[in-house]
Amino acid sequence: MDTASLLMTAPELILTGAGLILMLIAAYAGDGSARLVSVLAVAALAVAGVSLTGIAGHGGDAFDGLYVADAFATFGKVLIYVSAAVAIIIAPRFFAAGRAIRAEYPVLILFATVGMGLMVSARDMLTVYIGLELNSLAAYVLASFMRQDSRSAEAGLKYFVLGALASGILLYGMSLLYGFTGSTSFAGIATAMGDGLSKGELFGLVFVLTGLAFKISAVPFHMWTPDVYEGAPTPVTAFFASAPKVAAMGVTVRIAMEAMGSALHSWQQIVIFVALASIIFGAVAAIGQTNIKRLLAYSSINNVGFALIGLAAGTAEGVASVMSYLAIYVVMTIGSFLCVLQMRDVNGQPVEEIASLSGLSQSRKGLAAAMAIFMFSLAGIPPLMGFWAKFLVFDAAVAAGLTGLAAFGIAASVIGAFYYLKIIKTMYFDAPADAYAPAGSRIESALIAVCAVIIVIGYLLNPLLDTASAAAAAALQ
Q1: Tens-digit pLDDT profile for residues 330-368
Q2: How many independent structural domains does the chain possess?
Q3: What is the domain range of residue 436?
Q4: Model pTM score
Q5: CA 65 vs CA 46, 62, 186, 187: distances in Å
């Protein structure tokens, strides 16, 4: 038995064991155990997070190079575990309103988290595929979790069909790379591509990047995102917009830099096109939206484009900027969806129309202020942290000689600012709509406050964030 490999995979083993135990509890105790299972699931995520510190200085390749424990994986897993924990914490109150709370929910989150952990730690195409499918299988169920809601059932079906298509494309690309390079390991593929890129390897590269573009919902493979975000339960949407985004971007960056680093000029053009298309389409398509969750879906597409600008640089500074962007993006996104959870009518039913935010600053001053902070930050308005995230990726692009790309990204960000500012205008200047129900959860209010404070004074954490992102980037060199 490879004890060292088992120790390096401790976070996944902890979450897998916890998921199996909690699944048995849910099966025997029924939905009445939902809150207990949720508490234990959050505790398991905390223990898995703590275990990351134990392997921080003792990482390396595990299971003959199939898995790696390094600073890059640790950075991604911290973001994934935090996002998953928040998605579990905020779920009971949401599902209780429709009597749809189920004990299986936190278990599915745990198994999805195991898959995402494998994705960011993968150093072999086989590990990538196993992790991605483990995450996807749980995500399909989560998207359609509210079976009595036709929108949720439709979201689950669309996610399944298009997710299966993306997985097939990705698997075909992996098979092409294996056929033409003779290896599924990132190191073997990099060595083969270092001798010159054959047409077969180029086709494999394109198919792999296409499959990954589906997973990060980048244009032109974004079509599932708005419908799934709108139809899925809001806690699930908050989860989809944060943790899987980190995992998918993480594995994309690792594959691009470790497996295809020697073919930089071949995939760089693809990444630049996808980045620009995502920025422009995400900004333009969001302008006419009336549903807040669909707007945030297009916002996520837009933000993926900005993050890809850092990857397009193809440098350590570019990778570090992507990781910093993801960390800030997770805080902004979670905060935004927490505010959406507070949008409830007097009967306690969720409201998703942007028009219902009219005059919110008069009835719920704190909620309006928090939403304004997140919208300003997503728009990249200084001095909020969203501005710093965009500055980092633009700076990395300029340093890599991609000044035109950076300039275009800066210009396109002005388009995106329009619909963010439209929400702020609705809250502060439009005639008041029907008042929302009072805040019914101290936990949600506390989480909103924490996210808002981080976005406002996050510059104090910049030294820590810069150090962690630089270490994560260095692990890929």
Answers
A1: 999 999 999 998 888 877 778 888 888 888 888 888 888
A2: 1
A3: 3-475
A4: 0.93
A5: 27, 6, 9, 9
